[in-house]
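INFO batch 0412 | record 1 of 1 | parsing
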Amino acid sequence: QLQLVESGGGWVQPGGSLRLSCAASGLALDSYAIGWFRQAPGQEREFVAGINWRGTNTDYADSVKGRFTISRDNNKNTIYLQMSSLKPEDTAVYSCAGGFDGSGDSPTNYLYWGQGTQVTVSA
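INFO prediction complete | emitting tokens
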């Protein structure tokens, strides 16, 4: 089973930056596509960004394009989400998830999930 652990969340002022990490263990990370999702209180989980197992293809939600960057280092078994120009509406619990290539933006397509890390953007 692929185990995923997120880190790097916290509080940041609007306009600030954070880098989230997703550390993988248990199975070979380079066999899986990885997605970042977020869920704010009272809202459904939404897709943020995804990357294929090679790291050659990425996808982003329109709301974060140009501000967030997903990347992966399979040698370190880690996936990153660099977040810049953060807005209060980015406040949520961010989770990484592993699935087969082509899992896309639907959370139901992903097999393995981390516990999530809280990101709070406020003045």
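INFO post-check: The chain has a mean pLDDT of 94.
INFO record closed
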